[in-house]
Amino acid sequence: MYITEEIKRRRTFGIVSHPDAGKTTLTEKLLLFGGAIRVAGAVKSNKIRKAAVSDFMEIERQRGISVATSVMGFEYKGYKINILDTPGHQDFQEDTFRTLTAVDSVIIVIDAAKGVEPQTEKLMNVCRLRHTPVILFINKLDRPARDSFSLLDEVEETLRIKVRPLSWPISSGDSFKGVYNIFDHSLLLFNPSIQEIQPAVRFGDVHDPRLDSHIGRDAAVLREELELVEGVYPAFDHGSYLAGHLAPVFFGSALYNFGVQELLDTFVKIAPSPRPAHTEEREVHPEEGNFTGFVFKIHANIDPNHRSRIAFVKVCSGHFQRNNVYTHVRLGKTLRISSPTAFMADQKETIEEAFPGDIIGVPDTGNFIIGDTLTEGEMIRFRGLPSFSPELFRYVENADPMKSKQLHKGIDQLMDEGVAQLFISQFNGRKIIGTVGQLQFEVIQYRLEHEYGARCRFEAISMYKACWIESDDAKKLEEFKKRKYQKMCLDKRGRDVFMADSPFILQMAQEEFKEIKFHFTSEF
Ligand code: G4P
Known about the structure:
The protein is globular, with a radius of gyration of 25 Å. The chain starts with a helix and ends in a 5-residue tail after the last strand. The protein has 524 residues and is α+β, with helices and mostly antiparallel strands. Helices cover 30% and strands 28% of the residues. The strands form seven sheets. An eight-stranded antiparallel beta sheet has the order 27-24-26-25-29-30-28-31. A seven-stranded mixed beta sheet has the order 2-3-1-4-5-11-6, sandwiched between helices. A six-stranded antiparallel beta sheet has the order 18-17-23-14-15-22. It has three domains: 2-270, Rossmann fold, CATH 3.40.50; 277-375, 3-Layer(aba) Sandwich (Rossmann fold), CATH 3.40.50.300; 392-519, Peptide chain release factor 3, domain III (Alpha-Beta Plaits), CATH 3.30.70. It binds guanosine-5',3'-tetraphosphate (G4P). The site of guanosine-5',3'-tetraphosphate has 17 residues, from helix 2.
């Protein structure tokens, strides 16, 4: 009973956006509501403070991006909220994708002037794949914005999801008056000179004549637009939202903390508590008695004085307790977890227990890799942490022959953390590193040097895609591998990967070997 209550009050979600749409600002305002931080600016200044003590983080500071993913937990109106932060920079999108495997819902922030941007689309694709419930926050209404209807048309078209506005903006930019809450017919007036939240004014409905005294001539436009909203968009259906088919939409300005509380109050009411998770063997339900969880993120350099790593574990079922002995399924051994931590904005503290939906940090000396499962003895493996085919490939070479051991160890550990992917050529044994963006190569080089004392050199290689191959026809598979032996690699788990040089070569291979399936993710 106690566990069921704990599960029901948990909301574990991620905020995602194209860089600069306002993800960090919104996160910070949500933390302010939860009392997890006291002053605005704390989240950003935290980033910079870390940069001052860690060389690696200096990269982050200089580039003005958030490389690290962190977890922020806080209490709000009886709910336990866990926000999983994701790096905004697209070179680290795989990190973001993995984090999305640990959330139960998502808030997508969209810049009202820019609309849907490329990164928004990619992130939505991942949410759609996993049927993750999505809420949209249209941000920066204090600046001139695009017409709300055309913006929502674009959202529906490019993000391929039905939308339902739950609030509606009254103009934007200099003439921005505020937002009207469509469901409880309340008006939130915007006043840029007052940072505190003004109490909402409640009306019987949008035809209430008092509305005119508050927003003047804009009242007529609002009535017209709301009539159109009711005509165009389906009614809000909770089931469709939970199934990932319908996204409720809020408008506001994260910078002015405007419309954020409405978002949060609705979010806690409608967003799902922890959902069942899939393993290779069966579906795991949060209410099950036995603890299970999986590692979705490994974070190095938490403490720059030690080579410390923390494995982030999402609790999927049962009751996690400190000092209990749990089974590490991949290694087939048991572990006592004596100092699990929870995260609160920039602080972490040791915890005694955790429930489904919670994220715990487990200090790691190299036992964990991304995707590892912890249980109370059951040998199950969580699914849903695929590697995607990288976009860029380079041979990696040792630049300091005296340090080859360090280099191998460093590369191994960085790959376990999911910094990039390693493929080994079956033809000549050379190592190929695949990434999503150029920045990852720089991070690898930097970290190998600073953490492992090793130096590497990258060598250009022209490659289009890594394809994980399989076939029911073992003979054909062998024939293919023989024919393409110069292009065959093994991934970190020893699976066959065909490296296609170009879209043309791939197409030819697909046409010639119809019995073989070519996958662009490692999980199929
Ligand atoms: P991100 O995490 O999605 O990358 O975006 P972030 O919150 O860092 O916001 C990007 C920029 O947009 C910041 O300005 C931020 O202040 C601004 N911003 C966020 N929300 C709003 C909003 O509602 N209205 C307006 N007008 N601006 C907003 P910056 O100048 O790049 O950084 P800073 O110096 O203000 O921190």
